[in-house]
Amino acid sequence: MTGKIFRGCFLVGLVVTILCTGLFVVVMASRYEREVYQELEEELVYVQHGLERSGMDYLTGLETDQRLTWVAEDGTVLYDNVADPKTMGNHADREEVIQAQQEGTGRSKHVSETLLEKTLYYAVRLSDGTVLRISCQETTMGALALDVLQPVVWVLVLAVALSGLLASRTARQIVRPINNIDLENPRLDETYEEIFPLVSRLKEQNRTIGQQMETLSRRQREFSALAENMNEGVLLIDSRYNVLFGNQSAFSLLGAWEAPESLRQDNCRREIWEAAGKALAGRHNGTLMDAESRIYEVLANPVAVSGQVTGAVVFMMDVTEREERESLRREFSANVSHELKTPLTAISGFAELMKEGMVEGEKLREFAGDIYKECARLIALIDDIMKLSRLDEGSGDLTTELVDLYALAKMVQKELTPTAEKRSIQIQVEGGHQQIQGVWRILHEMAYNLCDNAIKYNKDGGRVVLRVTGSQEKATLTVEDTGIGIPKGQQDRVFERFYRVDKSHSRQIGGTGLGLSIVKHGAQYHNAQITMDSELDVGTTIAVTFPKQTFL
Description:
- The chain has 15 helices and 17 strands.
- It is an alpha+beta fold.
- β1 and β2 (77-80) form a beta hairpin.
- α10 (362-393) packs parallel to α14, α11 runs parallel beside α12 (440-456) and α12 (440-456) runs antiparallel to α14.
């Protein structure tokens, strides 16, 4: 404030000084010029009378401080008391000479190149038509201004001193009450009236700022709590890749436990760096990233203010399950197409032979039986696919009820005994009654498929045991067989859709390859755990354990 007051005071003093000095110089120069012309005119009157009476002799004997020039009617210089007339040019084009010949008298002035001196001319026409001119040197306005420059400088120095003193004192008087205002709780009785509006505005702004800070603080806490509890990573960066915000999930994907100051190629994954660069270029983009045995989708969007990109938001979402489901869907579609094509090809071939009349007698009956068998295989495959679809989507009649696993095992035993007796395989049910809350139809399909697989992949004369055991916390359904067993390297894959350990043996015994997949999905629906123990040529034991606290 002191500087502004000083500049204001000094500027006023400077302007006033300049205007006064300029006005003084202009007035004095104008007045001085009029006086000089008057003196030249008076002196030239005397010279004119002397010249007309005595001629050239008067001029040669005249002593004067001014320059006299006598010009003939045609402009030839007849006399000059400073220079040789022979060396002087014709003066017919001189302004004062022309004006004197036309009007009787004439005047003009010539300013030097330095603007510090000027020559004043005054001419009069004589009775014989010649022109007599007188001239003298005069101080110009510039020279006069230089003469008064020193006093002006002293005035300006005094103005600077006075302006500084006045500005300092005035600023202290103005600022003291403002500096004494309590910004947290301003009071009107401690200030002068001129700043009452300021104090009132401060009080109002304090209330508004307090409310806004409270709101912002609450929203910041809510946002931070939400972001930190997200499994997805969120990064907010500015146009120079400086990290403005990020949650712990994002930092862990960057390989850092604390927030980095900025994103660089050496401190973040390539997919994140490229996505951020495209977003800062103004393009929405997304890509997949493999990190820590998981798959993440990196989405980056530009942040624009007034049409100008000022930053970007990078979102990293775990899409491992989605990608795995998509991969399974593609694999499932390919497997379904293959599994459907095989029986349909056989049916088409048999039907074509029968249509062409190339099958007769017993062969016709045999082909019809093959067609029936392949159709039954198709129906079973479609039925299993529909079961899996219902389990995947959670649709259909999935009403839970109290299910006795031991009674369910006895029912499965009864249903599969005819099939087992064809190969002299014994089915036994052991254990005791264990009840869980579940979907009876899904549990029945699980037990049926486990037992059916145990029969199909068993040895002739073998044995299948369905065992129901439990405790206060869990109930377990175990299916044990004395079959061909499963190699160690393939035990983790038998629950995949359409996966078969021995494809040639599977074709001989039938089946769709979806039985254990149905068991797996049923277990997931009931939050159950599946364990397997198998040894080649010894047998396989599969146990499904249901947590009782989930279903009771």
